[in-house]
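Students often ask why we bother predicting the structure of a whole assembly rather than each chain alone. The short answer is interfaces. A chain on its own may look different once its partners are present, and contacts between molecules only exist in the joint model. In this exercise we take three input lines together and write out one structure for the complete complex. Read the inputs first and try to guess which parts will touch.
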Amino acid sequence: MSVSDALSRRRLLAIGSAVGGGALLAACTSNEKKGDSGSGSQTVNNSQGDNTAPGKAVKIGFSAPAADHGWIAAITANATAQAGKYSEVTFVPVAAGKDVTEQRPAVESLISQKPDVIVMLPHDGAQMTSTGRKAMDAGIPVVNLDREFSDPLAYRLLIKGDNYGMGVAAGHYIGQKLKGKTNPVIAEIPGIDELQLTQDRSKGFRDALALYGLKVGPRIAARFTVASGQEVTANLLSGNPHIDAVWNHDDDQGVGVLQAMQQAGRKEFFMVGGAGSLDAMQHIKAGDTPLEATVTYSPTMASSAINLARLIAQGRKMSELAELQVPKLIILQSETITKDNVDQYMPLGFRS
Amino acid sequence: MTVLEKATPIPAGRREWSEPVKRNLGLVGVLIAILAVGAITRPDLFLDLDWLWRNELLILTQASAIGVITVGMTFVMIGGGIDLSVGALVALTSVWCTTVATQQFGSLGMIFTAVVVGVIAGSLNGVLIAYGRLVPFIATLAMLVAARGLAQMISGKLTQRVDVANQFINQLSFNKILGIPALVLIMLAVGVLGWILLNRTTFGRRTFAIGGNPEAARLAGINIRRHLVLLYALSGLCCGIAAIIVVSLSSAGAADHGDLYELDAIAAAIIGGTALSGGRGTIVGSLLGVVIFKGITNLFIVNNLEQEYQLIVKGAIIVAAVLIQQFRVSSLRRRTSG
Amino acid sequence: MRGTAAEVVLELQGIVKDFPGVRALDGVDLEVRAGEVHCLLGQNGAGKSTLIKVLSGAHRPDAGRIMWLGEEVSFARPQAAMRAGIATIYQELDLVEGLSVADNVFLGREPAGLGFVHRGRMREAARGVLTRLGHGEIPVDREVAKLPSAAKQIVSMARALSMDARLLIMDEPSAVLAHDEVANLFRVIRELTAQGIAVIYISHRLEEIRDIGDRVTVLKDGRTSAANLDAKGTPTRELVSKMTGRTIEYVFPPRPDHSPGAELLAVEGLSLAGEFHDVSLKVHAGEIVGIAGLVGSGRSELLETIYGARRAGAGTVRVAGQELRPGDVRAAVRQGLGMAPEERKSQALVLDDPVYRNITLATFGRFASAGFTSHGRERTAAVRIADELQVRPPGVERPVRTLSGGNQQKVVVGRWLLGGTRLLLLDEPTRGVDVGARAELYEVIRRLVADGVGILLVSSEVPEVLGLADRVLVMREGRLIHEAEASTLDEHTVLDMVMAGSLLETENAV
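Now the answer. The structure tokens for the assembled complex follow.
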């Protein structure tokens, strides 16, 4: 009896401490900082013109992929924050899941709710074209974000970044700094190589460097993740004892890239980043790493998309344009952020 | 057939030791071959002994996380199971130990959290398999999906940087002891402890027995279920340790850490001679398998070659290793049966 | 069929088959006629299974002639026998569980054109064959796994029939069937024989042989001891006597002259659903209790339940007065129980591990200190045991896979010897063990008993039970039906009880 008593007491104790430990661990999942209001997302202030003046009430539907990547997380965060700035806007986000087959029914259910306008970042532009078309046919204007539909009739407005332009901007920055040097070693660390956007970025980079008579040297792809950035860079540095410049396509993986450089104690080169994360901008401002500049592919496009969607739904014009309607196509300029202008961009940096 | 019959008979009593040792010597041969290829393709680097030393330390550093995981995986596989959730558990533990809330407790708090979360998740695998009678493949596949999801939920898909205040974790990937990177020493320590546990303790004996013949082990009075839980908990523990290594290397926790680590670990164990059917395997072989993989990655990148080639080479090495293993086992059986 | 001189389809003359160390068949003669049910009778180990394998092309005989339809034949592979018209239906039916009935009937011979299976034609043909067997109701599209075992057997027969088999060999087909299903099976067999198909029927149940058989051939020690007896008219006494009185000498060590000690094992009212019911027995220290029974009588399940490898539905097991927790092997081992299971290779041995590790499998913890094993102490102990039991070839580092069956069994027994086991459960300890090694194993068992170990022994070989045991329990269809001192029983009587013959009843009547 006493043995089983002791046993059950021991069990109770074990269960008790397990529960306690579990509670403690569960508490450890929190990411709230004290005094941190949290969002880190960016909104656009139209300080001039009459576009900020409240208009009629509108309902804006929104759909973007559930992302495992800081950039897409920032897209959703930015759209949500921007919509929150207008009292007359009702924001209706729908979860778009992890692929086209989940996004399609989500958007269709959105269409049936008859919003005034839909802002959509598709998983795949071509595969979501018919769904965009369906919305347009139902009389709902669609703002197509970044990944382009294959049919122009499927959107009212297309806002996209410029992958080729990113490569060009990075190429120009590096080209100007290395101009006249003999056989400099220029390394490139792309993201996932199978993606068209990676190919576009690399082509822009090559084309721009060619203008200065320069060529890309070692080029090893990472996978947009911090860990892959670290591993690829560590090996790349080992294999190339002297490097003059590095272009890393993506500031997310850049965290690992910079860490590997630090671990190797290498700083004979300078580096250009890509996308424009807050982290990258802070390093540029501090000048504590080889990272000198980054070329933007900014998720602020989601904030702009919400703004323009509102104008489209209300039938208003853009105050800076003479035309009475919002234009059909906007391609964002890939901007180069350096120490000189970083303060200006800092509010637009996204948390990766 | 005739070739095999002509092969010299194995002297009684020598096989248990010589077979794994022979295989491991073969793996060392592969490593030497990798070095030789390096010396031919980049003589400027590989013949520079100073560079060579640093580069080999780099390979070992890059191997440290998967090396630790592979030690756990080797135990699970010798015990007749498989753990597909290791990569996801690295992600989950890395995220859990780098939340703002956890980081308040300092580096030790982070390490404690990673280890405890790893052990709990691993035990859950074990309980599902031992008491819920799920096939290991299914149970750990479910854990893979769920742990990745939980990691994404906790992190909000953002990269969680290690706070500057947590010096110990931050410095771990920079520290060296007697010229050897601390991360490499962690891997070696886990390897040595794993070797002792596997070859010198009753725990190891039970692992071999259960993987070799679960029914015989059960009828000999071994508590199979409890042991299975412990095996998967051990694998989870290794994931927690590996997460600390990954966090330190990349200075961050993220839900995409540990991507496909399960495949690397399983492949390394198989190259090292661990049988998918259980009952056979060595820690040394598994670690050599990891180092070979990372050595190939390094060799290709140092030659500024793209990944697609190294994937093909790695695939070929897995097939070759398994073919050699099957050939040896079947020839052994043929010689000794009847 | 009897009385008419039907055509002889199969004739075996002097078939011999040797295996290393054992002559399994030593001159078998057999004659089977078209349209008859020819029964094969014999004790376990008499050579029935080997004979079937020779007939079905799985083994090639070392000597003798097989005449099939008047020509001498030699089947290199099972497929060759099948093509010639000899189909075998094994106890473990060789059906693909995941495929449909029609798929199974035509497995490997699907009616096809240009590589495409004509599903319609195949289903049609399958339905036709099943109807011929009087079982048109079996749905041809049903997955075989979802059929009851009786229906599976019919599907297996349908496959044989679809291959135009002229001889059907059935190995204990009734073992997996319920009573009314057996009647149905017999109806099907009668329809087949009416169509001129010959059937070789193997069963241990004399009543079935009386019912369905036309003629009986009895095997003993790999030889035909009686051929072409009348299945209905031959007295039971004669059939049994043809099976018994083996010529192989069982060399049993002399029974020591000592009386059993204290009660070790007391089983009361033990039941396991579907396997055995309300079993009570006792084993004393220094006593061998033997259980005689056929495969499927529940004897192995009984042993496993006592050992805790299966959880009893009802009843208690006490070892030296201590009640064992049901379904807990470790508790049993702690109380000093050990078991040498029936399937040595799959249930007892880690085949690729060395001999010494197999000997210490249950005890390595005792040689460890603080969880650290001691290979040295383990090996020393294992070497002592291996020497004592004369495990050959010597060398405890040798993988146990490389040992003969008898020496493997010594390793398993040695494991419990090392563990200081008080009560040993032996399930078919000499299966697959040659004659010389058997004598050694008997010697070992006797020595254990002399040391005060109690033994519960299961064997299908009646002479073994009688020669070793002090007390004999007879088990049939999940029940203990008889208990007696071994000295008061003879092979005849026990075999008759085991086979559900009628010898006892007739003798009592006389």
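Check your guess against this: Strands of chain B lie at 160-161, 176-177, 180-181, 252-253.
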